[in-house]
Design brief:
The chain has about 500 residues and is an alpha+beta fold. About 25% of the residues lie in helices and about 25% in strands. The strands form five sheets. Strands 5, 6, 7, 8, 9, 10, 11, 14 and 17 form a nine-stranded antiparallel beta sheet that branches. The protein has a five-stranded mixed beta sheet with strand order 19-20-21-23-22. The longest helix has 22 residues. The radius of gyration is 28 Å and the shape is globular.
């Protein structure tokens, strides 16, 4: 694969690179923003990025799917795929402070739309798609929400789903994380919280936004470390929030205190719809963008969405586990567990009981985790069939199962709503459920070859290119299969048998 020698610097550079390697396609003009755009992007997800020309007749093109393969993300970093998690972990551990530039040098502020005069309308200004069948309407799905801690001034970056509520109003889902904590602190004083929604950033900045970092650690500094140089940022035109200077589009606004409006339903990453509830509201003050901007949308629950969350989580969980269990080798969040809920851990076990400690340690690493499977170092955690084989042959439920009841899980997990009237648990019990760990490792001691994995000597070293001499029909040449005549040969010296006559009915 044609891998860049250095990390991808900008969204436009990355899109040009994908196009040069036949991994970006242009979609005809006029594709509908409601459902059709998302349907096409989903069909191409994981194969090619989709660039929609004049979607819904809108002048601004839409891009989707440019981070929908794990190897593409490693390629954007400029590292081999096997070094992806280690590289991200180093960046998270050694962030680079950003570099502020003047507005004149920030392409994201080349054009400005002021919403104060009541004329600008977000619903027509940007080509915002409606994705899934039962979504309440158009949603911004690839917006990096940036806000400052009202106490310390340190920023946080996250991706939140954002619903169009009106001309200058957006509904936003705030899960119990750092942005929510910032807003609670501001709301407690009756104050709004300034925010910026940044759309259209390079792959590494998007990935950094999903880092599982402590509060008051600015993810834009992790983005700088991934780039290998400080990220250029610019101050918003209406607040102290700093945003990536070369972003395509920036929506500036304020989270309003003591205001809630209906938001949802929306098709989320578990591939189910979240409920319609009263949620927080952003009032837009200004929109700035590049000349001729590109709008980025993420199709919910598809690979771009899943991988954006998976890789930073994997890197964080691996580092977290290695601090207490240095014999942990690798981790993987499989697609079957929506890259959030199930974790596979590979370790070199040295004592009985270690795997159960690793299970409990993993649950403490992120509350979204619902199931953890620990396997030995001979099992590839990136291969679901390998992990299932280990469970089938090394696990016994009465001996190797760990269940933690009444634990905090993902509020978006629909199974946690069962038993509540209307499938609507109260806010303080959303996501409450059980967690399951499976120790699928071999015992430290066993007799003979009971737990010896069947292998054929030399199977891994065979060079098929060197030993395969022909394929298809030519492979039959020089063998008994080369002839189509399968009639048994007649013994020498015997006359051919006379054909059998059909018996006539009397």
């Amino acid at each position: 694969m044609n891998r860049p020698s250095a990390p991808s610097r900008s969204l436009r550079d990355w899109l040009r690179h994908l196009a040069a390697s036949d991994r970006l396609v242009a979609i005809r003009e006029g594709v509908a923003l409601e459902h059709e755009l998302a349907a096409i992007a989903k069909r191409l997800d994981g194969r090619q990025a989709a660039l929609f020309i004049r979607p819904g007749g809108h002048e601004i093109p839409v891009i989707s799917g440019f981070m929908s393969r794990r190897e593409w993300i490693a390629e954007a970093m400029g590292v081999p795929q096997g070094e992806l998690l280690a590289h991200f972990s180093r960046a998270a551990a050694e962030p680079l402070p950003w570099r502020e530039v003047e507005a004149a040098g920030a392409t994201c502020q080349q054009v400005r739309h002021d919403f104060a005069d009541g004329r600008a309308d977000i619903r027509t200004l940007l080509p915002i798609p409606t994705h899934s069948e039962h979504d309440s309407g158009p949603y911004i799905t690839a917006g990096l929400v940036i806000a400052r801690n009202p106490v310390t001034g340190v920023q946080n970056v996250s991706i939140n789903r954002i619903q169009l509520n009106g001309r200058d109003r957006l509904g936003v889902l705030l899960l119990p994380r750092h942005l929510h904590a910032f807003f609670q602190a501001a709301e407690a004083k009756g104050q709004p919280l300034d925010v910026a929604v940044v759309i259209g950033v390079d792959p590494l900045t998007a990935l950094a936004s999903q880092a599982i970092a402590p509060i008051d650690h600015d993810e834009l500094e992790i983005a700088g470390a991934l780039h290998g140089e400080p990220l250029a940022v610019v101050k918003c035109t209406t607040s102290e929030v700093r945003v990536p200077a070369d972003a395509e589009i920036v929506i500036e606004g304020r989270l309003l205190p003591n205001v809630r409006e209906p938001e949802g339903p929306f098709g989320e990453f578990p591939r189910y719809y979240s409920a319609r509830e009263d949620r927080e509201v952003i009032q837009i003050t200004t929109v700035t963008h590049r000349r001729a901007p590109i709008y980025h949308t993420i199709v919910p629950a598809e690979m771009e969405h899943l991988l954006l969350g998976a890789i930073p989580r994997e890197a964080t969980l691996l580092a977290h586990l290695k601090r207490s269990f240095p014999n942990v080798i690798d981790v993987h969040l499989p697609v079957g567990g929506v890259c959030r809920y199930h974790l596979h851990v590979q370790m070199k076990k040295t004592r009985e009981g270690q795997a159960k400690n690793v299970i409990l340690g993993a649950f403490g690493g992120h509350y979204d985790l619902k199931q953890v499977v620990v396997v030995d170092d001979d099992v590839d955690v990136h291969d679901p069939a390998e992990v299932e084989w280990a469970v089938a042959t090394r696990f016994q439920a009465d001996r190797d199962l760990v269940v933690v009841a009444g634990a905090q899980g993902s509020p978006l997990d629909p199974s946690t709503t069962v038993g509540w009237p209307g499938n609507a648990p109260p806010p303080d019990e959303q996501g409450l459920g059980a967690k399951m760990g499976l120790d699928a490792t071999r015992p430290m001691r066993s007799e003979g070859h009971v737990f010896t994995r069947v292998r054929i000597p030399g199977e891994r070293e065979v060079d098929l290119a060197a030993v395969v001499v022909a394929t298809g029909t030519p492979a039959l040449q020089g063998t008994a299969l080369a002839s189509a005549d399968d009639v048994p040969a007649q013994p020498a010296g015997e006359p051919p048998a006379a054909p059998r006559q059909k018996r006539k009915n009397p």
